[in-house]
Specification:
Two copies of one chain form a homodimer.
Chain A (H helix, E strand, L loop, with lengths): L2 E10 L9 E17 L4 E7 L11 H13 L6 E7 L10 H16 L6 H16 L7 H6 L2 E7 L2 E6 L6 E7 L5 H6 L4 E3 H20 L2 H7 L6 H4 L6 H10 L4 E4 L6 E5 L2 H17 L4 E7 L6 E2 L1
Helix pairs in contact in A: 1-2, 1-3, 2-3, 6-7, 9-10
Chain lengths: ~300, ~300
């Protein structure tokens, strides 16, 4: 195989009680990428359609992730790789745009080379893209992008990822208000210290949520989707967050929270019709205050990156 | 049925990453209780063998729990209840002594009355005993005493308890150094605020531990039994805690931590032989420094309170 075309999915990280550890993979939002072997050595990004992102290999998250993989192999064949990126995920939207590019390229090169690496190793390389994008080799978006479904980052050093079961038939509705939140703002707004009593409630919910996924318990899943720690701070950066959340829950959503560090807001629903109802209910909030937005209704993607 | 004899088990709360929420039920340590209908109305504690505890109903955790149950029923039959307690669990040892008495009595009276209440309701009554014992209606010992196995207190208001699966064949070795830790010391030594970054590691571990119980994964269970938050503080109150822990892990224990608020230390092992090896290894620590201790090797009790 000399060329591969893939779908690199968007992902939701920081799912309510799972700040920094719990993510899931989406199905109807994602980039397409074509990666092919080329006579020229090295990694070259030949095309980026849809967004204005750097073509220089060492300034692009996909390029950096690809180099991390090839470095590990001490790659010295008489060919290289060309990358084309068809970007559908908006950078800075909070649904893992950089993770999709980084995870996608390492998945694709691994396929072209006959799968020398495990999925866990691919996550290690993709994290180097995340390090470029946000200064830290976070894994909570690249893990669900590569494994699919719900994932838990048990630890980052050493990297240990747990693949969790997914509730049957679960849908997400994602709304992306077109505002910019600076990464430094979404970080600096968080306190470095939190109340122990609040932390206890948070970890009780995360334990319950893992149990809910294993037992396919929609009610418990819903009851566990509360974020006592981060949402009270970061929600202030998102216009009318409380109204969106309230409308989502009124329309039947199982839960609602900030996707990644925002501004996108995720909601989960137990079937497609409810996900559509939620879409209508939360769109109204931003229509009313004239905030432009994108909205997506999607299954949970249990496969992760797909070969097209 | 006019009389019932039960085994009221000891329990481990605050299991490592599950401070305030995760507990489990033990099999080889526990009290025996006899509860019988009596011609005299009300609740009377007629006998306590083994420990010097108050016989007055309203000053005894079992008495208070029994009254909470009867109050809820607006109980007004022409009989009452007598309670005999054969106490084997040392009060203040950290393995749920008060919880065993409180849970045992409400379980027994519920049986004598034809089971008007669910197990969850029984936990509500037993918590009133805990309120008397420690000032707060904690549920993390009474829940495993009544349900058996591993339990997660998802929330206390409203009370929601999750029954988790138990690893097959799991054993605990519990060592109780005969020292007194004042409840106020074990509380006041904890900070009210903790680092967010440490809390993230704690909830990642609790999520992983729940996953490990569902997948019968001993390695992951072991890797998840780390307490970043509470153990660094409370372990200072227990002589040579670090040596005990180190010896336990060297002898093959899956994990080791402070039971409840101490001074007992729990360890888990994947079979009885390892649990015995651990027992020898940790006993040596206290023999060397002449701290008197009790030690117990026990299966995890998946049934909870037992009718004898």
């Amino acid at each position: 195989m000399d060329e591969i075309k893939i779908f690199a999915p968007a992902t939701v990280a920081n799912i309510s009680c799972g700040f920094d550890v719990l993510g899931c993979c989406l199905d109807a939002i994602g980039d397409e990428m074509i990666i092919r072997k080329s006579p020229a050595k090295g990694v070259k990004i030949t095309k980026i359609i849809g967004e204005n992102l750097p073509l220089e290999t060492d300034k692009n998250v996909a390029g950096v992730a690809a180099l991390a993989l090839l470095d590990k192999l001490n790659f010295n064949e008489n060919f290289g790789f060309e990358i084309e990126i068809y970007k559908n995920i908006k950078p800075g939207s909070g649904v893992g745009s950089s993770a999709a590019s980084a995870a996608g390229v390492v998945f694709a090169i691994n396929e072209l080379l006959g799968k020398p690496f495990t999925k866990l190793e691919l996550i290690e390389f993709a994290r180097e893209g995340e390090r470029l994008a946000c200064g830290s080799p976070i894994a909570d978006n690249v893990a669900p992008a590569i494994f699919g479904g719900f994932t838990l980052v048990k630890s980052t050093n050493p990297l240990k990822i747990i693949e969790l079961p997914t509730l049957k038939g679960l849908y997400a509705t994602i709304i992306h208000p077109q505002i910019e939140i600076k990464t430094e703002d979404s970080r600096s707004i968080l306190p470095s210290k939190i109340e122990l009593s609040e932390a206890v409630k948070q970890w009780a919910n995360l334990g319950s949520l893992v149990h809910a996924l294993h037992t396919n318990d929609y009610n418990l899943f819903s009851e566990s989707l509360t974020d006592y720690i981060v949402e009270p701070y970061r929600s202030k950066l998102i216009p009318d967050f409380d109204k969106v959340k309230n409308n989502a829950l009124q329309a039947g959503a199982l839960g609602c929270g900030i996707s990644g560090s925002g501004p996108s807001i995720f909601t989960f629903s137990k079937d497609k019709q409810i996900a559509k109802n939620v879409s209508v209910a939360i769109s109204e909030v931003y229509k009313k205050i004239d905030v432009p937005f994108h909205i997506y209704i999607t299954k949970i993607n249990t496969q992760g990156i797909k070969i097209l």
